[in-house]
């Protein structure tokens, strides 16, 4: 079935790429991704790709965001010059997505610039998961499939008890995402009113909605420094939440994030996916529970390759 399909990866998250191949029952195409002595990246595709349908699995994730982004662009360029028939960039985590508009004078729209890099490098289609801002899809001049992590998150969330949960958006910007979870779980919705004075610093003020005596599930697209998450957990406790759990697609977990989550006694569990490799963070933070998106991405790749509908995966 996959005789003319190939899956490649750089060094960003090879474990996820291998898991996708295991799901599809195919082999990962070897790709050399090293660094020259002067720091320049070296890319070389280890197999013939002429006329093939090629998928490059490479999140632009920390701890080396810019290196991973450059690797992705170089792989795409190499495939384009090797006459691949179709090139799809599978970017589970899309970096710079929070810089999707000008909020101060003389600032770049970085999310758009990154989209241009990827398009010019050779991507004919993009697959990603839970973009921070949905309008980033419009930054590309090619089809973009913005998948949702919700389908893989629902099972562990249902185990918390469907009759006593409330879905909580950590801020006004995440209401649409939280509402989608609430609809699927047939649960009420609440919103944490948040003020942000500076980047990566947020203060939760109060809660809109009823959380008293319920299991509060904070839903977000990513957890970066965990300031928003931990502040939200504290205010939910003050409003009478019985138990507080968080879920997010992208575990960025930079800076003091792990220490903050461990120190926040009111937060019992944090459910995340493997769009970003966690390395030793799982050992350092016993509250983390990782759910794989390999099957979701594998189904998406299969449907794109066979010309089947991708929209069925959004249900």
UniProtKB/TrEMBL annotation:
InterPro entries with a match to the protein in the record: PRib_PP_synth_CS (IPR000842), Pribosyltran_N (IPR029099), PRTase-like (IPR029057), PRTase_dom (IPR000836), Rib-P_diPkinase (IPR005946), Rib-P_diPkinase_bac (IPR037515)
Pathway: Metabolic intermediate biosynthesis; 5-phospho-alpha-D-ribose 1-diphosphate biosynthesis; 5-phospho-alpha-D-ribose 1-diphosphate from D-ribose 5-phosphate (route I): step 1/1
Keywords assigned: ATP-binding, Cytoplasm, Kinase, Magnesium, Metal-binding, Nucleotide biosynthesis, Nucleotide-binding, Transferase
Principal cellular location given in the protein's record: cytoplasm
UniProt-listed SUPFAM superfamilies: PRTase-like
CDD domains: PRTases_typeI
Protein name (database record): Ribose-phosphate pyrophosphokinase
Species per Swiss-Prot/TrEMBL record: Candidatus Desulfovibrio trichonymphae
């Amino acid at each position: 079935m996959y005789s003319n399909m190939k899956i490649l990866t750089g060094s960003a998250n090879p474990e996820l790429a291998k898991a996708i191949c295991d799901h599809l029952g195919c082999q990962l195409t070897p790709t050399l991704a090293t660094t020259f002595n002067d720091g320049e990246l070296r890319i070389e595709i280890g197999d013939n790709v002429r006329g093939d349908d090629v998928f490059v699995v490479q999140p632009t994730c920390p701890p080396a965001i810019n290196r991973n982004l450059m690797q992705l662009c170089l792989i795409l360029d190499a495939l384009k010059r090797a006459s691949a028939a179709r090139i799809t960039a599978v970017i589970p985590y899309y970096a710079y997505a929070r810089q999707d508009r000008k909020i101060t004078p003389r600032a770049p729209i970085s999310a758009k610039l990154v989209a241009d890099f990827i398009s010019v490098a050779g991507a004919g289609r993009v697959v990603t998961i839970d973009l921070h801002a949905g309008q980033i899809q419009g930054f590309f001049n090619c089809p973009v499939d913005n998948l949702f992590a919700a389908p893989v998150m629902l099972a562990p969330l249902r185990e918390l008890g469907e009759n006593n949960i409330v879905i909580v958006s950590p801020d006004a910007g995440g209401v649409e995402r939280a509402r989608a979870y609430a609809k699927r779980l047939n649960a009420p919705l609440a919103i944490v009113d948040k003020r942000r004075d500076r980047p990566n610093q947020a203060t939760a003020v109060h809660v809109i909605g009823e959380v008293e005596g319920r299991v509060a599930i904070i839903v977000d697209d990513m957890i970066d420094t965990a300031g928003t998450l931990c502040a939200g957990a504290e205010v939910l406790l003050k409003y009478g939440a019985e138990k507080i759990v968080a879920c997010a697609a992208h575990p960025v977990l930079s800076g003091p994030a792990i220490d903050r989550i461990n120190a926040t006694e009111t937060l019992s569990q944090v459910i995340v996916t493997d769009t970003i490799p966690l390395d030793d963070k799982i050992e350092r933070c016993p509250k983390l529970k990782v759910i794989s998106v390999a099957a979701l991405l594998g189904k998406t790749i299969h449907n794109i390759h066979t010309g089947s509908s991708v929209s069925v995966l959004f249900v």
